[in-house]
Amino acid sequence: MTLDPVPALDVDPLIDDPGTRIIVCCGAGGVGKTTTAAALGLRAAERGRKVVVLTIDPARRLAQSMGIDSLDNTPRKVTGVDGTGELHAMMLDMKRTFDEIVEAHADSERADAILNNPFYQSLSAGFAGTQEYMAMEKLGQLRARDEWDLIVVDTPPSRSALDFLDAPKNLGSFLDGKFIRVLMAPAKVGGRAGMKFLNVGMSVMTGTLGKLLGGQFLRDVQTFVAAMDTMFGGFRTRADATYRLLQAPGTAFLVVAAPERDALREAAYFVERLAAEEMPLAGLVLNRVHGSGAARLSAERALAAAENLDEPGIVDQEAGKEALRSSPEPPTSTASSEPSVSPEPPVSAPATQHDETMNDQTSSDQASSDRASSDQTQPSDARQLAAGLLRLHAERMHLLAREQRTRDRFTALHPEVPVTEVAALPGDVHDLAGLRDIGDRLASGIRPAGAA
């Protein structure tokens, strides 16, 4: 049975298309989403588009790679971009984004009351789901300004990188739903009965709300709800609008993964979730794929060669039987059959010449011995080095085989998803040149085996 070829993901047509207005990079943590988003933004800008990259990565690597001292909630222009386009970058400040919503939808007096309210300050700074919701709020703001013709979003780091799809709906429900009415119930009951209800009902709350328990808590909730009352419906409306924006044809999702089992399992979940939510998926970016310049040498052959170097056979011995045949004869005994000849009496001059000859021969023998010892040591060191390199190559080939099996499992489950592979780099990306290199690899990088 022959598998259908895997479609190849072509990045340049995606970022060149003026109809593409939003690219969302999603995936598990630590797979290179931020770098991918920045590289796509830079490449699109250098191909003539006006781009803003929105990151939620607190590590600030994006700012460093783009030569900016720091990023905040305001888009900042990146210098050093080639071509006719522009590149801007920003990092989400979720509290500041929440403050901007309040300031935009309330008069100055009411806005001050909300912004200074302790309950609001805890909610805007650390309530579960606030970061994801504010990322989508900021995306909606950027899109409404219509100042950029392409927005690239680096999604929040979380256990499930698609939490941001649920966050607008969840936080909108929180601010416009039963929970607020439950919080207001003690205030409406009043008196001791109200405080008893508060003590019993609120005692189960933990986390951010738990820190607010106390005599002032009820009044803070009352003030917050009274000030926000006219805005609750707005949260729901904007959440729905952002969700529709993510489903629009001008949006493209790129799932980013590493060629590892857990990362590709998450990628498969993202693909299935996006399909269920009718979100437009552009394809899979497989990051940090390893390769070898000597792939024709299999791991098995490399290991066999390494073992032969460690334990050489007779063909590898230095002398063998030839050495025995050419070795000097042992000294003969006095009972030898050769006739005995008496030596002539020595004279002084020949005796001196004989001593010098013997000294020269001794020096020559010592030098030969030293060279032989050296010759025996050097081949041994070379063999050990070669054996070590062969074993490293075998490990690399096993890694390549494992990555290939993992990719094959994903493509067997989702043969319709276009894929591009980005080769692993020897170091981290820390400047525009590095981002440009990643962009080149994204656009014309490795195609998966059997790619169309």
Automatic annotation (TrEMBL):
Residues 20-289 form the ArsA/GET3 Anion-transporting ATPase-like domain. This is AAA family ATPase. It comes from Streptomyces boluensis. GO terms for molecular function: ATP binding; ATP hydrolysis activity. Pfam families: ArsA_ATPase. Coiled coil: none annotated. Residues 308-382 are annotated as: Disordered. Residues 332-341, 360-378 have a biased composition (Low complexity).
